[in-house]
Design a protein that fits this description.
BirA Bifunctional Protein, domain 2, 39% helix, 443 residues, Rossmann fold, 16 strands, alpha+beta
Length: 443
């Protein structure tokens, strides 16, 4: 490194990004919507570790899925044990269900999460290597009404975020494991001799996970998939009846859907119901989320046979669609008041005043490290505050403060002890950011 080059400027690794304050406003709003809707429905929040033993994902997601074969961040700890940053949360939630004896809780156990995940995927629009998801899991009952509730809750979240009209619900059933095994063999036979028309990924999937050939995005693979035998011809009676009952519930709730026989989802643990919310214009390329029933996963991870259904959606994709739809989210970060001062004695008066203003619910910033009043007022302008409090040598001597309306340029002088009450009236009670620790504990 040459002397004039200076220290290296670091960048984020490829596929990850900083969540800056403006995007955190979207994150905060999404979390509030999800918490509200989930609490309404009796769901409880769960957080599983960022990493699990690798076998949790290999056994649940499937060795031949793209996630396990190509996309997991796997490493060894100091004792040589294989660990993986979680690429999805359902497997960890099911592991937690078994480990913490949740089968003893009232069933179904209804859980939700808001978590970061990690996949070594090709970065592209709405897809990152570290990404956030919200998710719902209903574990312990097999009933199409629960599938309908899960879909309805996902739809309501999209609606509350102002993006429901951008997406179309795609719906399918992939049957029981037995029916799926029979159909998988039929598909394998159909693709024999068609190697030259398959992409590299589909050549690998054909013998190990043939259902995945149906949702490949490559043009030649899609043509073959259109001509392939249909899953509906191989469904068992139980799966057909389950699916018809689910659709009757969705019809009753007024939730529109499109049946899509090629929708299979990418994870091995699904059975019967599968669904996704697709962009009405870009289709699966910009799906916001999806889910389905996974009745065999609890047993696969060492528990007793336990039915379950779930859903997950990408927060980054939610935000991208909210921005496209010009959805404005409320900001809790905007300041009410900027306190400017001149001189050491004024600064001493400012410190307790700033804290009193904050305790009263008035979001306040003080330029305690700045010099000239002109520079402080310029900073207040940049923060867009509606009110500024000014304290100088004269105000310290008189026990007063100047309150300036930044928009109108008008100002008034008030006694120091009345600054807080005066500003509370000007700002308005409904705009104050107040809370009581006691109320939070017992609300």
């Amino acid at each position: 490194m040459s002397d004039n080059q200076g220290p290296k400027r670091f960048q984020t690794p490829k596929g990850v990004h900083d969540i800056l304050p403006k995007d955190h406003e979207y994150h905060t709003f999404i979390k509030k919507v999800v918490r509200h809707r989930c609490r309404q429905a009796g769901f409880k929040r769960i957080t599983t570790p960022i990493f699990e033993f690798t076998d949790v994902f290999k056994r649940s997601i499937g060795d031949e899925t793209d996630i396990v074969s190509k996309e997991m961040y796997t490493f060894e700890d100091k004792k040589g044990r294989s660990l993986t940053l979680k690429p999805e949360s359902t497997a960890g939630v099911v592991r937690a269900y078994i480990q913490n004896n949740m089968q003893e809780w009232p069933q179904p156990v209804e859980l939700y999460y808001i978590e970061p995940h990690f996949r070594y995927d090709r970065p592209q629009k709405g897809r990152y290597r570290q990404f956030w998801q919200i998710g719902l899991e209903l574990i312990g009952e097999s009933d199409p009404a629960l599938d309908a509730q899960c879909i309805q809750l996902a739809h309501l979240i999209n609606k509350d975020l102002g993006i429901a009209d951008r997406f179309e619900l795609q719906l399918n059933t992939i049957g029981t494991p037995e029916a799926r095994a029979e159909y998988s063999q039929v598909l394998s036979d159909y693709y024999v001799g068609k190697d030259r028309s398959l992409c590299e990924d589909c050549l690998r999937r054909r013998d190990k996970n043939p259902l995945r050939l149906l949702d490949c995005k490559a043009e030649d693979c899609q043509i073959l998939a259109d001509l392939a035998p249909k899953m509906s011809d191989y469904l068992d009676k139980e799966s057909v009846e389950f699916h018809e009952e689910l659709k009757s519930y969705l019809d009753e709730m007024g939730i529109e859907y499109k049946e899509n026989e090629r929708l299979v989802r990418g994870l091995d643990y699904y059975s019967k119901t599968v669904f996704e919310f697709w962009d009405k214009h870009e289709g699966a390329q910009n799906a916001i989320g999806g889910g389905g029933r996974y009745d065999g996963l609890v047993e696969l991870l060492g528990g007793n046979p336990t039915p379950a259904v779930g859903y997950a959606a990408g927060i980054e994709r939610m935000i991208a669609n909210m921005k496209i739809s010009k959805v404005r989210v409320p900001s809790k970060d905007n300041l009410h008041v900027f306190v400017a001062q001149l001189g050491t004695e004024a600064k001493k008066k400012c410190l307790p005043l700033i804290q009193d203003l904050r305790e009263a619910g008035i979001k306040t910033m003080g330029a305690l490290g700045k010099g000239a009043i002109k520079n402080q007022l310029r900073l207040a302008d940049k923060h867009g505050v509606p009110w500024t409090v000014l304290i100088g040598i004269t105000e310290v001597r008189d026990g007063t403060a100047i309150i300036r309306n930044m928009e109108k340029g008008t100002q008034e002088t008030v006694p120091m002890e009345k600054v807080v009450s005066t500003l509370k009236k000007k700002i308005g009670a409904k705009n104050l950011d107040t809370y009581s620790p006691g109320e939070l504990l017992y609300s």
